[in-house]
C-alpha cells in the first residue's frame, strides 16, 4: 500500500504516514491534499481519492531532530549505491576503521562498498592499502533525509523534497520511473 508524504504548514517535510492515516487527517480538516495518488478508498457510502502528499493546516513545532538513523538503505542512498573505493555497484557495508580495530558503527565510519573491495580490505586500515576516499564519510543532513530514511518512495514527492536535499539524494526517494497503477483499497471504518 502506498504511503503519503506529510508536510508542515510551512511545506517542510515532516514524515510519511499510511494512506488511511492521511485520509483521516484530510477528513478531519487537519491537512489538505496537495497531490492525488489515484487510489480510490471506499467507505460504506462513498469513494474518496486518497492523497499522495498532504500539508498540515496548522504549523507543528518540531522540538528536536535527532541524527538520521543509520540504516543500510539510508547509507546506500548517501553513497549513491556505489562502492566509495572503486565506484562499482555497492553490495555491502564497510567500516572504514575496522570494527576489530575499534572502529564504530557510525555515519562517519561506514561506507557503501562492493563485495570485492570489502573482501580485499578486510580488517586493514586504508593507509595500509594505500587507498583513498574522495571525501570522508559524514552523517547526511537536510530534511529530505527524514523521508529517504523511511524507505518509502513516490515520484510525486519529488518537487516537495527537492528544496530540502540534493537532486541525487532526492532521486532515491522519488525516482522518475512512473509507478504501476495502484490498486483500489477498501476503507473499513
Ligand atoms: Zn569496490
From TrEMBL:
Pfam families to which the protein is assigned, alphabetical: HNH_5
Segments of this protein annotated with the region Disordered: 167-189
Record keyword Hydrolase present: yes
Entry superkingdom: Bacteria
Cross-referenced InterPro entries: HNH_5, HNH_nuc, NA-targeting_endonuclease
Domain HNH nuclease: 70-119
UniProt-recorded name of the protein: HNH endonuclease
Taxonomic source organism: Streptacidiphilus cavernicola
SMART domains recorded: HNHc
Basic and acidic residues bias spans: 178-189
Molecular-function annotations in GO: endonuclease activity
CDD domains linked: HNHc (cd00085)
Keywords from the named record: Endonuclease, Hydrolase, Nuclease
